[in-house]
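Hi, does anyone understand the following?
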Amino acid sequence: MADKEWFEHIDGHKDEMVRFLTDIISIPAVGPGSGGSGEEHKAAFIQKYLRDRGFGKILRFDAPDSDMSSGFRPNIMVDIKGRSSDRRIVVITHMDVVPPGDPGAWESDPFDAQVRDGQVTGRGAEDNGQALTASIFAARALLDTGAEPAFDIALFFVSDEEETNEKGIGHLLKEGVFRDSDLILVPDHGEPEGRMIEIGEKSLLWVRVKVKGKQCHASMPHLGNNAFRASMMFGSEADRALHERFDQRDDSFDHPLSSFEPTKREPGVSGINVLPGEDVFYMDCRLLPLYDAEDVLSVMRGVADDIESRTGVRIDLEVVLNERTIHPTGPDAMIVRNLSRAIEMATGKKAYTGGIGGGTCAAMLRNAGFEVAVWETVLNQAHAPNEHILVDNMISDCKVIATLFMMGDF
């Protein structure tokens, strides 16, 4: 079958793709770690859609989770036979989304998708609804037109990507669902031209910083010990020490330096006239591959010890997440070669490889020994208010994925 036939099928289903995307945006799938109810309802919608459209073999690999009323986090796999089972093209997208954040920063309800001027706006539109939709409709174009892909195809729709990956990719790895010969695409990061193939990620370290002082009335600070002041001291001094110690640059990454960012802060005292006895905040650290998380924690501990001795507070550092990328994908890996060729065939663009500071589930797969390419055409709207995508990008990405499905060894 000629490329033109399945490209025409994709173009002809543009409106349905947009409807599907708006439908899944309308089903919030925020994880329990962020106060949400998880992915169960979105998974049920996706599974019914696949079944109704003739996707034959649909499997579930649900991960037990006591934080969920259902008792599990869903993971879906669609299996499609190709001309050869020697290899399998695997596309992994995730169903969960981050919380909307400040509702006042949104121009519309984050979970009521808006379609306007060739854009779809809503929480999860880019992260990861665009790619999830594109992967389904790429496979459907082949099924509906009778095209036989070069290799077997597996579409995965996973949970827990925005929090720990343990109930998604981590669970699937334990279940042994991946094959050594799999060619894995994770369409969950990219740039507006759709040319960058991500082959490596920075290591990810999340740290909870808890400062314990003594609460008292703000008019009598000598009776207490202001945890907030000590917390600000730690944040400022740790920021300086970390950037001085870990200052190497790698221009193959989208942000070429390691980063150390204070992010979430837990609620403290509610009264203006109350001197806080406890302050808790978090740091998001993204480390270039040459650095180790233990060294970062050692520098942070040194700063904490110094502030403790000067102020009398206690500072506890708790590692929330420590995910080190050990095995980046080689630029000559088969999945990278085939994807590069598919991008050029479908769009006429020349792809290039690089690394990112953002975390995807590819890191866990790479550390398990799999070669993974991360690619998508995005506006870098992930986690932002008024998150949106261009419909034309979704259509173009769908054609690239369909082309990838039809390719053999390259």
